Amino acid sequence: MLLPRALRAPAALLTALLLPFAAACGGSARADSEHDVTLRVGATGWKVEEAVLKFAHLDDTPYKVKWSVFQGGDQQLQAVRANALDLASSSEIPPVFSAADGRPNFKVVAVQRGSTLNQEVVVPKGSKVTGIAGLKGRKVGYVKNTTAHYFLYELLKQAGLTWSDIDAKPLLPNDGLAALNGGSIDAFASYGTSVITAHQQGATTVGSGADILSGNFLWSARDSVLKNSAEKTAAADLIARITKAYAYVRDGREADFAKVVAENTHQPVAQAEQDLTAQQKQRPTQARTVDDTAIASQQKVADAFTELGALPSRLDVKSFWTTALNADLKKAL
């Protein structure tokens, strides 16, 4: 559910760019019923959630959904901060950085369990690097403030290296692929479609985040959504529908949905089916309500970034989680 451009714009600049969009969308107008609701929802890479809902015939929502595509969950959270999105999906990491200033305008409202496959450190065709230890002193691209940042750090530790042992280059997925193929970096830590594309171009895997990452992907909602009962109900319903849609796919329809995936990720249908089947076997996509275990999992990640020096001080992640959607989500599921 990810895609692969240009070096990351500073958060302040991206926020400034998003503000006119937020204004044009009028923020989130107060809704008295679900029929009055328009949820602005983020998607990473391509609109896989919209596609799976349509495939499962569950896109007939009583509310409107406006999907917007971003290169990563970090940009989705920046859009939420700029009031340009109502609901964002991401790994555990983007909310940590979006809340680090102590003034988040969102809460994590649900957990979507998902696959951690296609989260890899890759090297280009012909590289002599065969493992993470071989990255010492080399230029390594990574997608900053994402799962790639986290699993690269953990893989380096496992190999007896520190972050300072590599020449780390923060790059967005598209830029990382171009840099890898152009020879300006020796390896690239990324995820999803960018990893799939890298392999199509001859790249090989030297490290994987599959067993490092928790598989918890978070739904974050703007505070204003949680203050409006119709919007809150709509958000819970949408999250539940996505769970039901993936269950529909797993009920013997993987081959058919793989055709939709292949069309959007530009890979052979057979490869798309193989990846989809492996992902759903590893960890079926399904939503869960907020609990202490999920919060503790993100706290572990946040502490790692504090140790890395990416956060100025320890962050108590519980401060931006809420159980406010639990009752609605349980009912919708």
Automatic annotation (TrEMBL):
UniProt KW keywords: Signal
InterPro entries: Solute-binding_3/MltF_N (IPR001638), SsuA/THI5 (IPR015168)
Entry-linked Pfam families: NMT1 (PF09084)
Signal sequence annotation: 1-31
Biased composition, class Polar residues, residue ranges: 272-288
Positions of region (Disordered): 272-291
Keyword Signal among UniProt keywords: yes
All copies of domain Solute-binding protein family 3/N-terminal, residue ranges: 38-250
Family statement drawn from the similarity comment of this UniProt entry: Belongs to the bacterial solute-binding protein SsuA/TauA family.
Name assigned to this protein: ABC transporter substrate-binding protein
Organism whose genome encodes this protein: Streptomyces hyaluromycini
